[in-house]
Structure formats: C-alpha cells, structure tokens
Amino acid sequence: MKQFFMVLCLVITGIMPVFSQAVGLDAAIVQMSNNVHQNIPAASVVALPIFEAPVRVSDYVLGELSRALINGRSLKLVEQTRIDQARESLAFSSHSPIPDPMLQRVGWVLGAQYIIT
To answer: Torsions phi, psi of 115, nearest 5?
Structure first.
C-alpha cells in the first residue's frame, strides 16, 4: 500500500512543477520518466494503467511513457495486454480508469510492485 501511495505522490509532485512552467506534453513525459527512475528501485515491476483523459491522449502518454521507462532499462513494465486482461476480469471497460480503491488489487493480480497513475 505504501508503494502505491508513494507512486501517486511521485507523480503529483513530479508533474505539478512541470505544468506550472507550461512545458509541452513530451517534456512532461520525459520529466515524469526521470522522476520514476530516480525514485523507484531498479528491477521493480511497474504497471501503467489507463488514466482519465481522452482515449487518444491516454494512449499517447502511456505509449511514450512506456518507451521512456523501457529505454531506461532499470524497470520491468507489465504488458498492456495483461493490464487489459485484469481489467476485463474485474469488469472494467478497456478505456476507463481503474478506481483508486481497486488499484492495489489490480497491482497484486499483475504482480506489480508499483502502479503509476
């Protein structure tokens, strides 16, 4: 539970300064990736579920963030197909965010140590 809360805090504290400086989406993704790499131990298993945004924006951000995290080579990402399967088994639609109370269960099902929301 502490890990999930920590990641949520990392995302909020890591991204808020970015948006206050009015940088582009790509720069925010790079900064978020750097923040995740600095604060999550190497070889950790990380899941990136869909978040609340228009579908094209969510898909773009998840794709770019996944590439940035993979290129860092220190984290293991849960495949999106496994996240989609967990979403289906828990009766969530494929493009809706997973409610916060369910994130820990989804993370456990996926074997993820961290979920970045």
So the answer is: -120, 125
Contact criterion met (CB below 8 Å) for 46 and 112: yes
Instruction: Give residue 70's identity as a one-letter amino acid code.
Output: I
The pLDDT score that the predictor gives to residue 44 is 92
- Separation between Cα atoms, residue 84 and residue 62, nearest integer Å: 13
The span from the CA of 82 to the CA of 64, in Å, is: 18
CA distances from 57 to 19, 52, 53, 65 (A): 16, 9, 6, 12
Residue ranges of alpha helices (H) inside 21-114 are 25-39, 55-71, 80-89, 100-110
Distance CA 92, CA 89 (A): 8
Residue 9 pLDDT? 47
Is residue 25's pLDDT more than 50? yes
Helix-strand-coil split of the chain, %, nearest 5: 60, 5, 30
Q: What's this model's pTM, rounded to 2 decimal places?
A: 0.69
